[in-house]
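Risk mitigation, structural track. In case the binding assays with adenosine-5'-diphosphate fail to produce interpretable data, a predicted complex structure has been prepared as a fallback.
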Amino acid sequence: MSLSFDPSTLHTDLFIGGAWQKASNGATFPVENPATNEIIAQVADGDAEDAARAIEAAGRAQAEWGKSTPRERADILRRAYELVIASTDRLAAIMTAEMGKPLAEAKGEVAYGAEMLRWFSEEAVRIGGDHTTSVDGNTRILITKEPVGPCVLVTPWNFPLAMGARKIAPAVAAGCTMVFKPAELTPLTSLALADIFRQAGLPEGVLNVVTTSTAATVVEHWTNSGIARKISFTGSTGVGKILLRQAAENVMRSSMELGGNAPFIVLADADIEKAVDGAMKAKMRNMGEACTAANRFFVHRSAVEEFGEKFAKRMSELQVGNGALAGTDVGPLIEQKGLDKVEGLVTDAIAKGARILTGGSRPEGPGYFFTPTVLTDVTTDAELMTTEIFGPVAAITPFDSEDEVLRLANDTEWGLVGYVFTENMDKALRFSAELEVGMVGLNTGLVSNPIAPFGGIKQSGLGREGGKVGIEEFLEYKYTAIAV
Ligand code: ADP
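Fallback model:
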């Protein structure tokens, strides 16, 4: 296999106070390539002592960093953006090796993550405030915005670069310092990103990265430290709830990007070619391992056969394999646990009456591969209707009326994103208004965009990342009353 990075140049230590450091107990944990089951690297396994050093460094750096000028912060982000773009091949290769996504998708993620840095370099200089007069005219009211303070950042493994960039960029723009714990399955990209920020001139102590195999110990140390003022988490709803409890205990600001259970709705009048294109994107981006992945396909009964047939044909044409190899469309799943879960969900759906249009099997190892699969006639009691599939499996359920499909689509605790395909403007706007979600894709299978507010409602989360509002998550308002 050809790699466009030299394994000996990987950063594998903790990044604390601007310096690369071993874990205090000397421990490491392995990082596996999910396509080959080979161990790529051993990474420092931080513990509570390392967590303490990291949050203390962030606490010490906050006062001065909070007073840095908007232009300084913008310039650092702009340099980081340029360095990320210049390192596209290397970062993409690292991501493919530790996470499995095909190189082309990894390069797309580098571009998306880089754009977060560029966007927030532009937002850093536009923080602003407000000034008004009280209604009785006796007080001038001055409203300014200040950095929240040291932030705890915790990210998942599915978008190793973008999830880090989406949190670090607004925190830097706002003048916050950070302790960052990337997912244990994919620490290498985050460490490479930290080094880019070092090269870009981020002052020491502003960004501290602790990799660990004991996430709960490290993160709980931070939330209980009395130093951290905010937590920004992307991951499962279950862990999000644990962290919200810890945040409540310490009255910390919280941003949560949690799970999804996206409905993908094809109305009777939809353009089926467009819907199939959208379905391929909404389902297969990142092998289906995305919180935005279409989880439940609801297709009008009059269109279900044509849609199912065309979608299954496109899915069956995808090349499954090692993402580092040319021609691969679909990489492996991240780990055995994910593969077992996907297989179990397919078995359950079939037992409850679903039919396989394509796929449904698990190729021989090595690697955690699952064949792109389309199931139809999936019943509403199938487990995958209420579980994030996180794999290349599309579950189609026919519907008869628009009221019925809206009820089905909203019948979930999650509310991240919904996709709707129709050529009728009134119906499009009705569905956009009535879907209980934070984001809607109308005739498109892709909603992620650095300049748009990404986030969900219900148990899909709190707050937004990106867009004009993204920086607000890292800012506090201060109001000064001035006697006239
Ligand atoms: P996923 O199902 O995508 O792996 P998780 O929510 O388990 O999502 O993981 C997302 C991130 O949360 C990872 O960085 C993981 O290490 C971290 N994490 C998992 N459990 C805890 C916990 N109890 N406390 C803090 N962080 C955790």
